[in-house]
Amino acid sequence: MYKKILIPLEGTENDKIVLEHVRRMAKQSAAALVLIQLHRVLKEHDPGLQKIQMEVGSAGYLKKEKAEAYLAELEQSLRKEGIQISKEFIVTTEPEADTIVKYGEEKGCDLVALTNQHRTGLGRWFFLNIEEKVKRRSSLPVLLVAGPKDKEKS
User: Fold this and answer.
1) Would you say residue 152 has pLDDT above 90?
2) For residues 44 and 50, is the Cβ–Cβ distance under 8 A?
3) Rg of the Cα trace of the chain?
4) Where residue 100 falls among pLDDT bands split at 50, 70, 90?
5) What CATH number did the domain enclosing 101 receive?
6) Contact criterion met (CB below 8 Å) for 9 and 15
7) What is the percent of the chain where pLDDT is above 70?
8) CA-based angle 4:107:110, to the nearest 5?
9) Which of 8, 18, 14 is closest to 109 using CA atoms?
10) What is the pLDDT of residues 23-53, one digit of tens each?
11) Whole-angstrom distance, CA of residue 74 vs CA of residue 49
12) What is the tally of helices (H) and strands (E) in the chain?
């Protein structure tokens, strides 16, 4: 089955939904989980301007601190269950979906698991969500776990 499952996290309640599902899969198949959280910075030609976006006290730096604490907490919880974990906070200038796809392929993952975000038809047309973009661009299988609004419709 799957040996290495990539799970991009947001730090929201949706993470619990996908983690609960993937936790069971990991236990059954002895798969390793790769937890990532992304922060997109503005693409600047001057590397100094990119660095400023992550300086101590900046919004990017605060997000990184919060994400690292969150990922460490998840790692500890999942390791207690005997699940192998790796985790990383990624700063990127690329679109989130492209970063997720590239990361999964480079790290040898064989599945990407995401929570399916609910959007109406018009919302999808204007703001194609990250999950849809990952699904369309990835050479890896993509598992979309139903989010809260999707479950209400069932």
Assistant:
1) no
2) yes
3) 16
4) very high
5) 3.40.50.620
6) yes
7) 85
8) 35
9) 8
10) 999 999 999 999 999 998 888 776 677 778 8
11) 32
12) 7, 5
Task: Decide: 107 and 34 in contact? Cβ < 8 Å.
Answer: yes
Contact (CB, 8 A) for 83 and 26: yes
Write the Ramachandran bin of 9: left for phi over 0, alpha for psi from -120 to 50, otherwise beta.
Answer: beta
- pTM, two decimals, is 0.85
Domain containing residue 26: 4-153
Total number of domains in the chain: 1
Burial class (CB in 10 A: 0-12, 13-18, 19+), 37: buried
| Burial bucket for residue 55 (CB in 10 Å: 0-12, 13-18, 19+) | exposed
Q: How far apart are CA 88 and CA 33, in angstroms?
A: 11
Can you tell me which residue has the tokens 């269950």? 81
> What is the overall mean pLDDT for the chain?
86
